[in-house]
């Protein structure tokens, strides 16, 4: 049975030309629908969908690295539930 998780991550907005912060905040939304049994995993980052599926029973223990705005992020499929780490901070899911 597939489960759905959702996280949000906020960061200061940076002007592309000057490289300076604008004072605004950007909020990124990450959602994950996955099944450890089937190995199916779809991650959606700010509305863009990525299929990161594995073989059946193969998701546990795997990791996916991705960019989240200006930061590197790590999606880790752990024993109990997946986690996302950004800049050494584990994000708390807003829904499970």
Give the helices and strands, then pairings.
Elements lengths: L2 E12 L6 E14 L6 E5 L2 E4 L11 E6 L2 E7 L4 E5 L2 E2 L6
Antiparallel strand pairs: 1-2, 2-3, 3-4, 5-6, 6-7, 7-8
What does this protein look like?
This protein has 96 residues and is mostly beta strands. The chain has no helices and 8 strands. The strands form 2 sheets. The protein has a 4-stranded antiparallel β-sheet with strand order 1-2-3-4, with no helix packed on it. It has a 4-stranded antiparallel β-sheet with strand order 5-6-7-8, with no helix packed on it. 16% of the residues are buried.
Number of helices: 0
Query: Over all CA atoms, what is the radius of gyration?
Result: 15 Å
User: Percent range for helical residues?
Assistant: under 10%
Largest sheet: 4 strands, antiparallel
Tell me the distance between the termini.
13 Å
Structural class: mainly beta
Mean pLDDT: 91
Give a concise summary.
This protein is an all-beta fold and 96 residues long. The chain is 0% helix and 57% strand.
